[in-house]
Every structure is written in structure tokens, then in C-alpha cells.
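Components:
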Amino acid sequence: MSSPTISTSSYYSTSVASTSSMASHPSSATSAYSTSATRSPSSYKPVLSKSSINPHVINVEYAVRGEISNKANNYAKLLSEGKKESAGIKFDSVVTANIGNPQQQPYLAQKPLTFWRQVAALTELPYLMEHESTRAVFPEDTIQRAKALLADVGSVGAYSHSKGSALVRKHVAEFIQERDGYPVDPELIYLTTGASGGVQLLMQVMVAGPDSGVMIPIPQYPLYSAALSLYNAQPVEYQLNPFDDWSLDVQAMSKSIDEARGKGVDVRACVVINPGNPTGQCLSEDNIKDLIRMAHEKRVVLLADEVYQANIFQPETRPFHSFRKVLKDFSKSQNAEEASMADEVELISFHSISKGVSGECGRRGGYFELCNISPEVEAEIYKLASISLCPSLQGQIGVDMLVKPPKKGEPSYPLYKAETEAIHKTLLQRSEKMAERLDKLKGVSVDPAQGALYLFPRLELGSKAVAEAEKRGKKVDNFYCLEMLDATGICVVPGSGFGKMPDEETGECWFRTTILAKETDEFIERYGKFHDEFMKMYGGDL
Amino acid sequence: MSSPTISTSSYYSTSVASTSSMASHPSSATSAYSTSATRSPSSYKPVLSKSSINPHVINVEYAVRGEISNKANNYAKLLSEGKKESAGIKFDSVVTANIGNPQQQPYLAQKPLTFWRQVAALTELPYLMEHESTRAVFPEDTIQRAKALLADVGSVGAYSHSKGSALVRKHVAEFIQERDGYPVDPELIYLTTGASGGVQLLMQVMVAGPDSGVMIPIPQYPLYSAALSLYNAQPVEYQLNPFDDWSLDVQAMSKSIDEARGKGVDVRACVVINPGNPTGQCLSEDNIKDLIRMAHEKRVVLLADEVYQANIFQPETRPFHSFRKVLKDFSKSQNAEEASMADEVELISFHSISKGVSGECGRRGGYFELCNISPEVEAEIYKLASISLCPSLQGQIGVDMLVKPPKKGEPSYPLYKAETEAIHKTLLQRSEKMAERLDKLKGVSVDPAQGALYLFPRLELGSKAVAEAEKRGKKVDNFYCLEMLDATGICVVPGSGFGKMPDEETGECWFRTTILAKETDEFIERYGKFHDEFMKMYGGDL
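Structure:
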């Protein structure tokens, strides 16, 4: 009720009693802190420089938004400012085929799913549900869904639980159970800021210093290598086979774990991207089984990046198998050792609203599910998640839409069905057409994608291109992709950005393009013309 | 166009040619990877355990969502399941006064600003703009704003630039310029996932190993200490004076930098929270000037957490001064050394949509602005930001609402003005009433807040309470707050959660409560009754 009287000390006093909390605030209006520096103004050296900041940040590489993407952004800016002529730009629009961002305008422009957006709008402005003139716009099931979500989260302007809304997590658990046939504990589901947010969080938990290693596929989505650089741990690479549907060789992976451990790398986890990114393959059930056996034998945690699980192009021959289902199926094994794996192999699976047919990247929603992770570690994961408070509420609501779409008989179902089928169909057509047409170009080989949103063509550019790239101080795939951008405005990512290095003798290399461009024919023509000219100029030795 | 023929090797083969990418995918339908393990199932030791994961994660403490908060969540769950009687719960509702979450239902329930939500709903479902029946609901300026935002971002379902929407960043720059009177480069503004996302990102960039130090106030918002634990750097504490409006003593801070450097700690930056959290003080312009002089002399980067800049309760006597304005004002100094500081002192300022009068925590929006940060470091910050792709689009749109509210003459202005004034008034009234009433309780002293959304009462609990807490293995403030929760359902954060430790002899300690409870009188009564009973039980020696 009363403050103790304390002795005050002035800023001018050189004998401040202590660095204690008791020193008084100056009531004088003039400045009291005199600068004793004698250097001239120009000699000031900033505290933060490339040599003083976190070296692990410097080491990070992230090509999906690297040099080529920055250059593309700059082209787009110049074009929007009407500077095409003055800047000598050879095209009218930039095509951002470097990133799976389906709703990007104007060149991709996939339409959002109506059901998703109706529910989102109602949660933003709940009085639309009450307002007679607007209520007619919203089918009854969107209103019911919005009400249920708001009853759980209160408001989309409120922080939720750090794991995310309890209702949405319950729906995720139901979705996984329906997909896989095994029960799921909603408490082990964490909603995240896209899948990326979850991957970064878990990498940070799992690695414990520079000797920790995590296996990553080559080629890989560069988030994984970037996170490993950032958290100062070792990537332990395993190769996907470009000549056999980018399959993985479990025996070889097992061997590389032994080799890495022999060198003192504490290999703790293995990232698997299925369907693959950038490669688009769908792993066979046997391949996954073998991976699980290996994870058990070698004691590594499996990180299953399954964000493209709804982008499947050959469902009959190459369906999606979730790691969780294949793992839990081991419980039915007659072999006790194998059966025990179902409850022993540590598995973390990721999913996202950014891909699939929703393509709602901008909401930043996703989830991960912990399987066989010890409660003490789960507590640490929760603590770390809580520092970021919670994922965005519209991201969480997006997850609800993803895992609990309209069902047959509900008012929104017919439109939802028509919209999603159309997107699936379009993506399949584009993917097939692009693969077929690109594969016909001289020096380009590409298989149709089994899944995901990309093609990953292999190029044979020849030694002349390599020599020219070298002259410009570039890897040959970088050189090719930069030339493509300059000539066409098409922005793609070189294979080396995914760790798939070019052969610097023959010029064999790769690039990733999305299959999202709206005007597929125009895209193919624009690219094909560039490629032919490039090969005329540099492919002379082929 | 054709794949080279390769030799295949079976999984059974022990002499795999290499760990190369050429090994074939098995076409056999049976499993090929044999487990050689001989251990019994029960002997499996999980890879991830408290002793194997990142020790820096283990070290993190985050009390805002710690033990007490978890217990409160559990109470809320039991109450919602109708288990009040069976669980022996003594109250009917949990009051989450532990976190500034104004829109949380049902106990806080601050209403969202209509303008914000109208624009958000239109960006979610743009056809509402075209639809005649709904258009009437939306004032013309909300439609114009939504159109302008959509023209820039394309869709709220698309990734934006990793720095955030160019249009929103332009508006942020205009807001800062209008506030401070100095031009701002939109390219140096990064939109973030709340302010927390920006703080975590920049901490990660700035610290470079265990000898790096960052000054943090005591008491402090625990995000800062948590981030320093996580990135394995040293907190260098400076004390705020509880008996002089939580002022900071620049001379003492300067001395502690010297002391820390003397011990080998590379002190690089200094966090200042203004208005203070948990303490609510607004720094005087002179205090800020001195801090800037000190930052220049001692070469430390200033991190100005200004997320409560719009929550000011004594605008005449304790206005908000932005660090950026005070820094840039030095350019007018006659003293060349002082004038040079305006372009030399490295300053990063944070703002958020979660506080103020919007309280839109769940959208996860905020920004930081880089001032005098070298371009080479800025490039690294950009690279790191790009790994997370972009902040949520509705968070970005929230920032647009924050920095560019309706102006006089625009259709939404009257309602916006009425809503924001009412919220300001309510917060002021609650804050004053709570401070006045709590201060009258025996053993409680609390000053009215100058800013932010909290009170930080000082308690004198006495030695008997300390002894009882010790018996239970708790700090005395933790004991008090847990007892409060058990008795009343009110969830607050003990001072030690902010680094303000209790005096374990006299029982002097602190707690933070938000001022957000809707039923202020009821809150005060509930709390007061508990406190009196606590003091009757444990305050016997006072």
C-alpha cells in the first residue's frame, strides 16, 4: 500500500550505489547521459554485420525464394510500373512456376473452394448469419459449421490453445482415423502455421548440436536442409533414383546411417516426402514398410511430409499410403518383433492446407501428428509451441475444412464436389500435357508426375553450356534457369536448389516447375521456344 | 528423352554396388528389408527423450502458458464437461487473466471492430461485393479497401511476398511517417506473425553462440528470455524500479554492459518494452534519449517492443514516444556526434495487431521496421523470413486496418470512432478501478497503469506464506497464484514468470493480471475475497 522511501542517485553521480533496481528515474528535463565517445561520426561500425551475426543463418540456402525468384519479383515490379520498354524486358508477364501457390494472380489463379470461403467469411463477420439479406447467400451447413467453430474458439480474433482449437484437432483425429482405420488422440495433434511451421519447430526440438544428423532425400524440398543449417545439425543425404520413379533404396539408406554414425554423426531422424517434392513419386507400400523396419532397427525417428497426399495422379497404380497406416498395420503381424514396431517407431506426420485442391497457402494452416513420441518430449514440444502462442485462426479453420469437407446430402456437397473434381481434373490434364510435350523437346526427359504439383525434368545441356555457365560463375542449371527467366519471364527452380547437383561435365541437370500455369499451352510454347534457342546456342556438341 | 540402362541390385544382395542413386526399386511385392534385431520388443528405447533432444529447448521457460495456465485449461475443460461437483471445483468459470487476449469468450469478450471484420469478410468471399443483397451490408469504403488489398495480394489464399504485401508495407511506412515525421522505406518493413514471430526471427539472426548477450528488462515479457534460452545466448538483465514507475536507469544499464563484457559476454542488443509489459510504464522522452546515447556509445542494437503504443492511459503526462522518432530527432542536434546517431544507432521496432483496441490476436499479424541495419544483414533477414514463406494473409490485412483506419468523412468513420473510443474508455475505467480497489487490500500495492493491458501488483505476503510455499516446493508467488486459481478460477502469472523474483524472506512478490475481465466488479470481489482469506491464513506475522 505504501512504497518504502529509498535513497536516490543522480545520473551524474559516478558512484551509483549498485546496478540495483533502486536507482531513481531522473525528473530533470535535460539529458543526463553524456556520451564519452571521441571517435568521428563516420567511424561508427554497425553492431550487426555478416561477420557478427549468427553464422548458421548465413549458411542457410533457400532456393525456392532465392536469386532467380528475387529477379522475377523485380521483373514483375518493373512490368507493373509500365517499364517493359525502358528496362528492355522481353515478355509481358512473369510466371511464378517456382512455388506451389495455386491461387496466385494472375497467371495461376486457381479459384478457392466456395465452402471454405463461405465458412471463413461467416467466422469473420458472424452477423452475416443473422442478417436476413445475407443469410440467403450462405447454405445452412456453412452456417452450422461457422457456429460450431465459433463456439469452440470464441472469435477468430482470439488466441486459441497453443496446440490449436480442440474442435479442429478432434476433426483431424477423425479424419486420420477414417483414412487409416486406427484411432488417434487429438491431444497429439498440433495445428501449425502451414507444414513449414511444424517442421521448423520439430527440427529445433530434435537436433542437439552439430553432431546431430537427419537424413534428407536428394532431391529434397529445401526447407529441410535450411532448417538443419539453421539449427546447426548435419544433413545425411540419401539419393532418390531418377531412373526408377525416384524410388528410395532402403538398403543403401541403412548403409549410409552406419557410415554417418561411423564418422560420429548421431543420426536421429529421417525425412521422407511422399508424394515427393520436387520429384512427384508416390512410395509403394513395401517401400514404406521397409523404411519403417529400418527406422526401428537403426533407431531413427520418421518425419513423413505428406502435404501432397491429395494430389495423386495415378490412384490405381500409385496410390497414396500414409506412413501412419503402414506403421499401425504392423500391429497385425504374426511376428512379435514386427508387431511391436507399431507402438515403437517414432513417427511424425505433416499435412497442410496449402496444397491438395484447396491451395490455401496464404492462410498458413497445417498440422502434425505425433505417434509413439514419449510424453516427456511431447511436453517440450508443447512448451515450444506455446512461445508462438497459436497458429492463425483462419489457418486453423482451413484445417477444419480440409479434414471435414461437406458430405453427401449436405447442402454444400454438390458444389464442393463439382469444384474439387474440376481442380483434380485440371491438375491431371496439365501435368500430363506438360510432361508429354516437354519430354519431346531435344535434351529434355520427364516422366508424368505420380503426385504433388510439380514436374522435375532432366536436361542434357552438353559441355558447351557448362563452359558458358562456368564463364559466368554459375552452376549450369542456374545459368539455364536464369536464361529462361530473362527470355520468357518463367521462373522455375534449378535442381541444385533441391540438392540435385548438375553433372558439370555432361551438363546433365534438373529443374522444378509447378504444373499450375493456367494457360498450359502458352506456357509450354513459351518455354519450348526458349529451350530450342538455348540448345541452338549452347547445345552444339550434342 | 531416354533413360540410360543401369544394373539393378536386389535388397537381398549384401554387396550393394554403392549407396548411389542407381540402385533399383524393388518390384517384388514382399518385404525385402530383414530386421536383424534380436532384442525383445519391450527393450526398445525411444530415440527422442528429455536427455537426447535439444538441451536449449529443455532450458526454455514460458510462464504465460506454464503450469498455472495448464491447470486453468484443465479446470475449464472439466467445467465444460459438467464436472464441477465431481471434481470439487469451487467456481463456475475460469478467468484467463494470464494473457492479453481481449476477444476471448466468454469472460473477456471484447467486440471486434466492425470495419476490420467487414474488410476481412470481403477479402474471404469477394463475391459479397458484387451480390446485391449483401452489398448493402458493407459500406463503400470497406469495399474499396478490400478491392485494393485483393488487387495487391491476388487472393487471401495465395502466398504473398515473404516480407508481406507491398501495399500493406507501403501503408505501414505512411503510418510511421505520419506518427514520427520522418520518411520510411517500405522495403525495410517486414510483416510478421504477430510481434512474436518477428522477435524470434531477429533474435535468431542477432545472436551468434553462447557468448552473445542481449539485455532484457526485469521484469520482462518472457518471450525474450525464452528466445535467448532457445538460441543459446545470454540474457543480461537490467532492473526496472518498482518504486519509481518502473523506470530504467541508463547509467546502471551502461555499467552492466561493461560488467558483462568484462566477463566475456558479447552484449549486442538491448530489448526495451515501451509501454512496459508486465509493468505498464511509458518511458519519458529523456529516458529514451539517454538509452539511444548509451546504445551508440556501447554499440548495442535497440529492440523496441512497442506493441502497446495505442494503449495509453495518461496521454497528457505519460504519452507514448516512439524510439524511431526520438532517434531521428537527433538529426536536428547541433552536436555533430549526436546528429550522427540518427543514422547510426541500429534500431528494430515491433508492432502488433494483437493489442491496441483491435485485440486481433488470433489473426497473428504484426510488423517490424529496420532502421540503420546494414543491407548485408537485411539480406540475411529476408532469407530467413522466406523459409517460412509469408505471414498469414488475414494477419497482413489486419496490419493494413491497424495502420490505415477509416478517416473522417469516410462512411465507416463514425462507427469506427464510436467503437474505438468506447474500448479505450472501458480499458481506462477497468484499469483505474482495478488499481484503486486492489491497492486498498491489505498487503497489496499497485499503481494505475500508464499503458498496456496489465496491472502488476506488489504483494507483501509475509514469512508464514513463504514457509508454507517452501513446504510445497513452490516459489511464494507461484504458491499464491495457484491458490488463487484453485479458489477463484482466476488465472494470473506470478512475477517470477517475468523474472521478477520474490523475496523469499519477507514474501514480497508480484503477479500480473490483465485488465480485460468484462465484469470488473465481480473480478475484484472474487479476487479480494481470496486474498483476504489467504492473508488470514498465511499473513499472521504481518
